[in-house]
Write a structure and sequence with these properties.
This is Ribose operon repressor. It comes from Xenorhabdus santafensis. InterPro entries: HTH_LacI, LacI/GalR-like_sensor, Lambda_DNA-bd_dom_sf, Peripla_BP_I, PurR_sensor_dom. By secondary structure, the protein is of the alpha/beta class. It contains eleven helices and twelve strands. The strands form two sheets. It has a six-stranded parallel beta sheet, with helices on both faces. A six-stranded mixed beta sheet has the order 7-6-8-9-10-12, with helices on both faces. Strand 8, helix 10 and strand 9 form a beta-alpha-beta unit. The protein is elongated.
Length: 333
């Protein structure tokens, strides 16, 4: 394999001149550039990314931790992050934590050992970590997407889940529904509790009771939505409408109604949360609360790049505003 010294020898120049041509960081005459480029082509020389990163103290890579899920929300966010990385000349290294605290720590260690320039964290909140994990790598810039899994001062970007839950429930109330249930996520996830709190606030403000059994903690997955909807159908007075804490559970609820010989929205209306891509193709298309996933990915990268260039700046908390997407899964009474 050819080295930079081989290129310099063939072109009749110094290795520093070859480096300047490759990195375009200093003036080199066109005549010399042509000689160097011809030597590179003849020798089929490929610059060493590792050597370059050691010299400039940058790897042009960003690490991202995300948990596994059947919910395509995560993959849609990752797609936005990857696109933003590419547009800014960075590569993305993705690690899946599988919802495991030990795997999260191991993956983080791996990314930091690979000298990533920055970290994005978006994985299971059920496992909170302390700052001890990062004390060996105190200078790595980090942005938390949606919540903070450890006690630390980092930039945080999150959805206004309280507002979104209230917005979803108020929409159902505005359509004439009074018996409204809520399927939310796990109790130990902040966004699940906030969306439930938004539901409760809207119901309370409207003077509506929440009957026993109308609030169900689930898991943010398709199967959880199915089993939760089945529980609601077993109640003496099933709800007229359901606010599902994310679209995956709303889709599971669709399936439960189909299995029971019922339909959306004729028998029960459903509203979801996230606005994942498949929701507009359901029958009927799902009314939902939109999370700006592309904006989340872009904002995460922009925030991380700013943090990398300004490590001493004060940590910021950025809150994205949810938006109602009205389709056909909610009837009007």
């Amino acid at each position: 394999m050819a080295t930079m010294k081989d290129v310099a020898r063939l072109a009749g120049v110094s290795t520093s001149t070859v480096s300047h041509v490759i990195n375009n960081n200093r003036y080199v005459s066109d005549r010399v550039k042509n000689k160097v480029n011809a030597a590179i082509e003849e020798l089929n020389y490929a610059p060493s990314a590792l050597a370059r990163s050691l010299k400039i103290k940058q790897t042009k890579t960003i690490g991202m931790l995300v948990t596994t899920s059947d919910n395509s929300f995560y993959s849609e966010v990752v797609r936005g992050v990857e696109r933003s990385c590419y547009e800014r000349g960075y590569s993305l290294i993705l690690c899946n934590t599988e919802g495991s605290a030990s795997r999260m720590i191991r993956s983080m260690e791996t990314l930091l050992q690979r000298r990533v320039d920055g970290l994005l964290i978006m994985c299971s909140e059920a496992h909170r970590l302390s700052d001890d994990v990062f004390r060996r790598y105190p200078l790595v810039p980090m942005v938390i997407m949606d919540w903070s899994p450890f006690e630390s001062s980092n930039d945080i970007i999150k959805d206004n889940s309280l507002q979104g839950g209230e917005m979803a429930t108020n929409y159902l109330i505005g359509r004439g529904f009074r018996k409204i249930a809520c399927i939310t996520g796990p109790k130990d996830k902040t966004l699940a509790c906030l969306r439930l709190a938004g539901y409760r606030k809207a119901m309370q403000d409207a003077g509506l009771d929440i009957p026993a059994g109308y609030e169900i903690y689930s898991d943010f997955e398709f199967a959880g939505g199915l089993s939760s909807m089945q529980q609601l159908l077993q109640l003496p007075e099933p709800p007229e409408a359901v606010f599902a804490g994310n679209d995956a559970m709303a889709i599971g609820a669709y399936q439960a109604l189909y299995q029971a010989g019922l339909s959306v929205p004729d028998d029960i209306s459903i509203i979801g949360y996230d606005d994942i891509a498949i929701t507009s193709y359901l029958i009927p298309p799902l009314t939902t609360i939109h999370q700006p996933k592309d904006e989340l990915g872009k904002l995460a990268i922009d925030s991380l790049l700013y943090r990398m260039g300004n490590p001493e700046s004060e940590p910021k908390e950025l809150v994205l505003t949810p938006k109602l997407i009205e389709r056909s899964s909610v009837a009007k009474r």
